[in-house]
Design brief:
The protein has about 475 residues and is α/β, with parallel strands linked by helices. About 50% of the residues lie in helices and about 5% in strands. Strands 2-1-6-7-5-3-4 form a 7-stranded mixed sheet. Helix 3 links the parallel strand 3 and strand 4. Helix 14 runs antiparallel to helix 15.
């Protein structure tokens, strides 16, 4: 009862060649080790090949993102309606919800716990502005000292792990704080299926986490506190997806939330009532989606989900993980899921093959990249694959290839507001430039990467560790021509 949209907690540092679980948890984000992959460019890199460069005395100032509206969704309204119903009336466990529930009237938000980083305060304000402008939701900060519709509380990570071992952050209905959640977590008060109208929600974030992790949790958990409580692997353009490739609310997500709070809907409506009104709502709020229907996506088999969970979740050994990823690839092919879900399976297999079977890793990444590059909605997915391929190129003595990949996908990471990925690509590029003897340009790129790394990885020790791991990829012979 009570938990949904929780972002998976990153597991400890994985063994050589393994991935680390997702850094964001989603409700039923099953401890899908998606986090395992997503921001983990250098967690499972090959052994050090050379000493890292001398570290600058101080890190440069933290870089952060300007909040920008998401591009409009390219989906047809028929497709949006179909996904709306699946997102709004089913929990990630598969349990059906009998009625639509949402906040009625203005929504207020407050931050509790702490200390709250200044950058997180700014990220929350930017998110609230986006929700007002793009989703049309009347949402704002609660006055100081006043109760709020949604309480966002920073909690000691150890306490979070004890309460919900697989979650790094999550949302619960029916409570306004951590103490109340612990007291009521298994009671009817926190049961999503009993909700008719949302009045109180609480979001719990890990205190001391990196700014990007906190921001990502804010986007996903606040969206689920307001609207859909389900996640679907078949969505490649949404944060409502357990693969965690998208970090911030997308155009599709904002359209769904705008429909959720349209005046034509209200709390307590049945699925049939909502389905009857959705076409007119979407025609009004998304006129560009009037044409086309789009064929329904291939269903996601439970066997594939179980294989992905075994490959990326905690408690599985290295060889068993790789075998599970191979099963996921086979199931995706056999089921006709020749889309981003096959790409995700291949990406997981490639990550897990690192350090064990470099040929298999290269082949997996190359096929995953082809799949992701074939769809405009999966450019950020492609960028996650590219960082692995760039790392392999640097390690193999092909700095020119590493630079080309970094240059091609750094802009994608920037547009997707993924500082962890952007910093990793720039670190690889800096190392490759140094290998080529272009020391001054390498220094400039390195400083840029460290500014983004402060937002993406947080603590200086974590930034330095990531930098050393990527530096260790460079071959011993430091000067060479581009390849």
């Amino acid at each position: 009862m009570g938990l949904t949209g929780w972002r998976m907690r990153p597991a400890g540092r994985p063994p050589q060649g393994a991935t680390k679980p997702p850094a964001r948890l989603r409700g039923a984000h099953l401890a899908l080790a998606t986090a395992l992959l997503l921001a983990a460019c250098a967690r499972a890199l090959p052994p050090a090949l050379d000493a890292p460069p001398a570290e600058p005395a101080r890190l440069p100032p933290m870089k952060s993102f300007e909040a920008a509206p998401a591009p409009a969704t390219g989906r047809s309204n028929a497709s949006i309606a179909r996904e709306f119903m699946a997102l709004a009336f089913e929990l990630e466990s598969g349990r059906r919800l009998p009625v639509l529930s949402r906040f009625e009237g203005p929504v207020t938000v407050r931050l509790a716990g702490g200390p709250v980083p200044e950058v997180t305060e700014r990220d929350l304000d930017a998110l609230l502005r986006r929700l007002r402008r793009e989703a049309g939701i009347a949402i704002s900060r609660a006055p100081s000292g006043a109760p709020a519709s949604i309480t966002i509380e920073l909690v000691n990570p150890r306490a979070l792990r004890r309460a919900v071992p697989r979650a790094a952050c999550f949302v619960s209905p029916g409570v306004s704080g951590w103490a109340e959640f612990r007291r009521l977590r298994n009671s009817p008060a926190t049961d999503w299926a009993r909700l008719r109208t949302r009045e109180r929600m609480a979001i719990f974030l890990p205190a001391g986490a990196a700014p990007q992790e906190l921001r990502d949790c804010l986007h996903e958990e606040l969206a689920q506190a307001l609207g859909p409580v389900n996640d679907l692997y078949r969505l490649n353009d949404s944060i409502f997806n357990d693969d965690n490739f998208n970090s911030v609310l997308t155009g599709f997500d904002m359209t769904v939330l705008r429909a959720f709070y349209d005046p034509a809907l209200q709390s307590g409506m049945t699925p049939a009532q909502v389905a009857a009104r959705l076409p007119a709502i979407l025609a009004r709020i998304n006129p560009g989606g009037a044409s086309g229907h789009g064929s329904p996506p291939v269903p996601t088999p439970r066997a594939w989900v179980r294989a992905i969970e075994a490959a990326l979740g905690p408690g599985t050994g290295g060889e068993a993980r790789l075998a599970a990823a191979a099963r996921a690839v086979a199931i995706a092919r056999a089921s006709g899921m020749n889309d981003h879900r096959l790409g995700f399976s291949l990406y997981a297999r490639g990550r897990l093959a690192l350090g064990r079977d470099s040929k298999l890793a290269r082949a997996s990444f190359a096929e995953a990249l082809r799949i992701f590059e074939s769809d405009a909605n999966t450019r950020i997915h492609a960028a996650h694959v590219a960082v692995q391929m760039a790392a392999q190129a640097l390690s193999a003595g092909a700095p020119g290839r590493a630079i080309a990949l970094a240059d091609r996908y750094a802009r994608v990471a920037l547009e997707a507001q993924n500082a962890r990925l952007l910093a990793s690509l720039l670190m690889i590029k800096s190392q490759a430039l140094e290998v080529l003897g272009q020391d001054e340009e390498a220094r400039v790129v390195r400083l840029d990467s460290l500014g983004w790394a402060r937002y993406g990885f947080g603590a200086e020790a974590e930034v330095r560790r990531r930098e050393r791991e990527i530096a260790a990829l460079a071959p011993r012979q430091k000067r060479m021509s581009a390849r």
